Amino acid sequence: MAETIRVLVSEEDVDKRIMELGKKISEDYAGKQVHLICVLKGGVFFMCELAKRITVPVSMDFMCVSSYGDGTTSSGVVRIAKDLDEAIEGKDVLIVEDIIDSGRTLYYLIDILKKRNPKSIHLCTLLDKPERRERDVKVDYVGFEIPDEFVVGYGLDYAQKYRNLPYIGVVEGLE
Ligand code: IMP
Ligand code: MG
């Protein structure tokens, strides 16, 4: 059966929530510059929209770590495919991720980044699937907690498809 997409969070609700997160982050980082680190590729749509809603000075960098292949389950292997361009020493870092699932990717990433001596390091994710957690990761900002379903859109893919959907959807009809 061909896969179909059921809307889980509408475009309007995603946009509204990102606006709220941007406001909260701007308050929390008042008087500081926030250094956003986007976890590619999934975090990129969220980071761009979020950055537009933050009113304190923002700088950005990108990192690509992969723990998943083309399917919907973790390969268990976390690999840095692209490292940051700039040092983060002394910076107030905010990692921007699309989704925290098992928590393995972020657990590993936070560990690596902490060793580079940022002034602070926090985590913002658009989606959180707490039921699936295997590693204890402290999430500071969450867009939406969602049930254990495979979702796409707003940066999230299924076999590299659907990242460009402007809403969050559940893929149905997967084998
Ligand atoms: P974790 O290491 O298990 O927390 O996995 C995090 C990564 O897995 C995310 O950054 C996504 O790239 C991917 N992932 C986890 N759940 C989903 C999903 O429902 N849809 C699409 N990608 C997902
Ligand atoms: Mg991701």
Can you offer a commentary on this structure?
With 175 residues, the protein is α/β, with parallel strands linked by helices. It has helices spanning 11-28, 44-52, 104-114; strands spanning 4-9, 34-40, 58-68, 74-82, 92-100, 120-128, 141-145, 151-152, 168-172. A hairpin with a 5-residue loop joins strand 3 and strand 4 (74-82). Helix 1 (11-28) packs across helix 2. The protein is globular, with a radius of gyration of 16 Å. It starts with a strand and ends with a strand. It binds inosinic acid and magnesium ion. Inosinic acid binds next to strand 3, strand 5, helix 3 and strand 8.
Q: Strand share of the residues?
A: 35-45%
Total count of helical runs of at least 4 residues: 3
Structural class from helices and strands?
A: alpha/beta
Q: Which small molecules are bound? A: inosinic acid, magnesium ion
Extended strand count: 9
What's this entry about, in short?
With 175 residues, this protein is α/β, with parallel strands linked by helices. The protein has helices spanning 11-28, 44-52, 104-114, and strands spanning 4-9, 34-40, 58-68, 74-82, 92-100, 120-128, 141-145, 151-152, 168-172. It contains 3 helices and 9 strands.
SSE arrangement:
Layout: E1 4-9, H1 11-28, E2 34-40, H2 44-52, E3 58-68, E4 74-82, E5 92-100, H3 104-114, E6 120-128, E7 141-145, E8 151-152, E9 168-172
Parallel strand pairs: 2-3, 2-5, 5-6, 6-7
Antiparallel strand pairs: 1-9, 3-4, 8-9
Helix pairs in contact: 1-2
This protein binds inosinic acid and magnesium ion (MG).
